[in-house]
Amino acid sequence: MHRARRRFDLSAVAELLLGVPTVLSSLLIVGLVGKALTPGTLWLLPVVWLVSGVIVFVPATDKVLAVVAHRLRRPTPTESDLLKPLLDEVCGAAGVDPRRFWLRIQNSREINAMAVGGHVVGVSTAALRLPGPQLEAVLAHEVGHHLAGHTKISLLRWWYELPARWTVWLVVMAGVVIHAVGSAIGTSGARAISIALVVVLAAAALVVSPWLVLVPVVAPLLALSSRRAELHADRVAAELGYGPLLLEVLQRWVKEGHDEQRARAGLRSRMLASHPSCAHRISRLHNKK
């Protein structure tokens, strides 16, 4: 087996660059809040916020996100006895310490797996029913995400985008409330005032979060970057010797109709899909043989 190349790939770099507009909007919002709260030291809050990004690299953050964001739990002794030897084999092939990764379980009837932060490798309860070699290949794919830095970059981008996203959410909620109040009053004047206020809120949101203008362009590009990251993780798994086994898993998904569901979803959904089709992944893996 070949050792995996532990480096950021282009998809991770692309995701980092595509997040810049939103991060700059977040910085502007934090700066405005800082100006209101600490007018004498305008730089203080933005600096504290920028430094706060180190929380992404704190191991405890991965454990919290695994539970809160992904509803992952610790494996039972039986599940651990099944998964740990498989992860040890993958890490041995990759030349990394298996103690670097924490196994977690998602209660789900669908075969699924995920990499979270810098340490968590999660699999669904349905995935546990895969034949051992196939399950090992799935773990190799998730370890490939960690080795390429995909998960850390995604988490860092998510953290720095929070102020901008929260601001947009608050504006949308305020607009919904104002519109509901105007409709409840029912007079033409109240409706006109509510519409005017909603327009003002939307304009204010664009001023403090100009990244909204770029969403129609950035969203498909981020999805494309995510799909490339999946192909890269497949390639890492193949380099570790799991290509044929990963093909078996993907061919199983094709038989279960995953690609048919995707085809029915429409062009827009396919453009915003975070994963490439199974057929595309299979084709790329065949080309790597």
UniProtKB/TrEMBL annotation:
It is a multi-pass membrane protein. Its EC number is 3.4.24.-. It is found in: Cell membrane. Its cofactor is Zn(2+). It is an enzyme of class 3 (hydrolase). GO terms for molecular function: metallopeptidase activity. It comes from the Bacteria. The keyword Ribosomal protein does not apply. Keywords: Cell membrane, Hydrolase, Membrane, Metal-binding, Metalloprotease, Protease, Transmembrane, Transmembrane helix, Zinc. Binds 1 zinc ion per subunit. Pfam families: Peptidase_M48. The keyword Cytoplasm does not apply. The chain crosses the membrane at residues 12-34, 40-61, 166-186, 192-225. Residues 86-287 form the Peptidase M48 domain. Belongs to the peptidase M48 family. This is M48 family metalloprotease. It comes from Lentzea kristufekii.
